[in-house]
């Protein structure tokens, strides 16, 4: 998992490997706006993996967001799809999809991705 930032616009306040190979967190301060935010970079288990691999990674991400200060983002390869997108294509949800949906709902997250951009324009 890799997170990169431009040091001309953001200063790193802290960084942490939350789950080796799966989840990292970086707290950055935007130098002009003085805005502090935490960016989580994720590479979640693939959708077809067994529950024993999928659930712990999602639970750890959920726990991080529960304890995070306001102003955080999650980016990366979540290897899950929103239920709305699955329904449009008449596909069935798997555990990773259900856990993504629960995370989005519980933390009131805006979503954006290769096939779904609802709400992103409100954030950018």
Structural write-up:
There is one protein chain. The protein has 124 residues and is an alpha+beta fold. The protein has a single domain, classed as Deoxyribonuclease I, Chain A (4-Layer Sandwich). It is built from four helices and four strands, in the order E-E-E-H-E-H-H-H. The protein has helices spanning 51-67, 83-88, 95-107, 120-123; strands at 10-19, 23-30, 36-43, 72-77. A four-stranded mixed sheet has the order 1-2-3-4, with helices on one face. Helix 1 (51-67) runs parallel beside helix 3.
Provide tags for this entry.
disordered C terminus, Endonuclease/exonuclease/phosphatase domain-containing protein, alpha+beta, Deoxyribonuclease I, Chain A
Shape: globular
Beta-strand fraction estimate: 25-35%
CATH class: Alpha Beta
First-last Cα distance:
23 Å
CATH topology: Deoxyribonuclease I, Chain A
- Helix residue percentage: 25-40%
Number of helices: 4
Unreliable residue runs: 120-124
Largest sheet: 4 strands, mixed
- Judged by helices, strands and strand pairing, the structural class is alpha+beta
Protein name: Endonuclease/exonuclease/phosphatase domain-containing protein
Organism: Calcidiscus leptoporus
């Amino acid at each position: 998992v890799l997170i990169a930032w431009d040091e001309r616009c953001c200063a790193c306040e802290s960084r942490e490997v939350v789950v080796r190979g799966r989840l990292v967190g970086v707290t950055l301060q935007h130098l002009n706006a003085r805005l502090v935010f935490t960016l989580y970079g994720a590479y979640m288990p693939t959708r077809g993996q067994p529950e024993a691999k999928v659930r712990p990674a999602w639970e750890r991400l959920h726990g991080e967001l529960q304890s995070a200060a306001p102003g955080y983002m999650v980016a990366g390869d979540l290897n899950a799809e929103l239920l709305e997108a699955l329904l449009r294509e008449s596909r069935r949800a798997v555990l990773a999809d259900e856990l993504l949906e629960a995370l989005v709902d519980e933390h009131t997250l805006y979503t954006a991705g290769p096939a779904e951009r609802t709400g992103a324009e409100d954030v950018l």
